[in-house]
Design a protein that fits this description.
Elements (H helix, E strand, L loop, with lengths): L6 H4 L5 E5 L6 H12 L5 E4 L6 H7 L6 E4 L8 H11 L10 H15 L4 H15 L5 H13 L7 H25 L11 H9 L15 H7 L4 H5 L3 H14 L7
Parallel strand pairs: 1-2
Antiparallel strand pairs: 1-3
Helix pairs in contact: 2-4, 2-9, 5-9, 6-7, 6-8, 8-12, 9-12
The structure holds glutathione (GSH).
The site of glutathione has 14 residues, from helix 7.
């Protein structure tokens, strides 16, 4: 999808505009792209400036990515609002299960991956910790890290609990995929694709990115994303990696374009 327009130009346009961080396969951004792609909803990619974007702040009252702005509706800057927008604009294929038990289960796991204090949130705190405490990190990276660490609540006292939370979340998702396989389903919820399959496929990158030919990214991002913690590695069922590959192959755009 990318072929970015700037915020100023995007504000004069109508339809769906999706603000993304160029050059970075950020988990929330890749998941939002995936959801709109699966539903075949056309959207215009808009460039976010990482680490502080006054123009985006003026438009959307915050400056993280992704943000989805549809016509003159309110900007949607959280994953759950973006999912509901996509579901409304293109009800089929439905990515929110119709059955309440499946829906409760799906949103629970999605929140563990995408929500505050969830998988990506906690992994980000570990990344800040590593950049800020490892000798030899460049001043450029340190500057961006300090800005983002303040914005996203980094505190060295949170590191152990963040690691434990990541392990807990990945174990629960591993149990889910194993149970679904036992039932004979290829999907994480019920018998069909749901938003959780897409969130997992996109969020898996922050521990085990797809190879460079399928997901090109700067070496420093690849290195930062790639998990080296044995406890986190042990929490992930190999079926989860297989599942990510299946979802990308069957439903999402490859190579990842950002
Ligand atoms: N607000 C999003 C999460 C978005 C988010 O955390 N975006 C980060 C990705 S790491 C970002 O834009 N970071 C760069 C920046 O803040 O400049 C949600 O809750 O769904």
């Amino acid at each position: 999808m990318p072929n970015y327009v700037e915020v100023e130009q995007a504000r004069t346009m109508s339809g769906l505009r999706l603000v993304l961080s160029p050059g970075v396969p950020g988990p929330w951004s890749e998941a939002a792209k995936g959801i709109f792609h699966v539903k075949k909803i056309p959207c215009i990619a808009v460039r976010q400036k990482m680490g502080g974007d006054p123009a985006l702040r003026e438009w959307t009252a915050q400056d993280s990515a992704p943000v989805a702005i549809y016509n003159d509706e309110r900007p949607r800057s959280t994953w759950i609002e973006q999912l509901y927008l996509a579901e409304r604009l293109a009800p089929q294929p439905a990515l929110i299960p119709g059955e309440i038990g499946d829906r409760v289960l799906m949103f629970g796991h999605c929140n563990e991956l995408c929500g505050e204090n969830g998988f990506a949130w906690c992994k980000r705190l570990l990344l800040f910790h590593s950049s800020l405490t490892t000798p030899g990190v460049s001043e450029e990276v340190l500057g961006l890290t300090r800005a983002l660490a303040g914005k996203y609540g980094y505190d060295p006292a949170l590191v152990d609990a963040s690691r434990a939370r990541i392990v807990e979340i990945l174990r629960a998702l591993s149990e889910l995929v194993q149970e679904q396989r036992r039932r004979g389903s290829r999907y994480l919820i019920g018998e069909r694709l749901s938003a959780l399959d897409i969130y997992w496929a996109a969020f898996c990158a922050i521990i085990n990115p797809l190879p460079d030919e399928l997901c090109p990214m700067a070496p420093q991002y690849r290195s930062a994303y790639t998990n080296r913690d044995p406890e986190i590695a042990a929490a992930v069922s190999p079926l989860l990696y297989e599942h990510r590959d299946f979802i990308y192959r069957e439903y999402l755009e490859l190579p990842v374009d950002n």
